[in-house]
Amino acid sequence: MANTLVSIQIIPKTPNGEDVIPFVDAAIEVIQSAGVKYKVGPLETTMEGDIHELLLVVAKMNQRMFELGCPSNISQVKIYSRADDEASMSDLTAKYDGYH
C-alpha cells in the first residue's frame, strides 16, 4: 500500500501521576522526527504515508513513553486505506476546510 492514514491517540500512564500532556508532546516529537506527513488534532494525531512506515512510528512512540518512565501505555489506532492507494487527509477533510 502506497498511501494509508493512521490516527493515533496515545495515553501513557505517567511515572508519578503527572499530567500526560508533556508525554503526549514527546510522542508527537517522535512523529515529527520521522519525517512523515501528519496533522495534530485535539484528541489524536493523523499520519499519512506507507502503512509499514507509519506502524513503525507508532511502535517508536510507545517505546519513547517507556524511555520516559511510563510503566504502560494505551495506543488507540485507526487505519484508513483504499485499494487504489489514494487515501489522503486533504481529500477526506476538503469539504470542511474554512468552516467553523
UniProtKB/TrEMBL annotation:
GO cellular component term, pick one: cytosol
InterPro entries assigned: MTH1187/YkoF-like, Thiamine_BP, UPF0045_domain
Gene3D superfamilies assigned: 3.30.70.930
Superkingdom of this protein's organism: Bacteria
Thiamine-binding protein domain location: 6-96
Similarity-based family: Belongs to the UPF0045 family.
Name recorded for this polypeptide: Uncharacterized protein, MTH1187 family
The species this protein was found in: Gracilibacillus ureilyticus
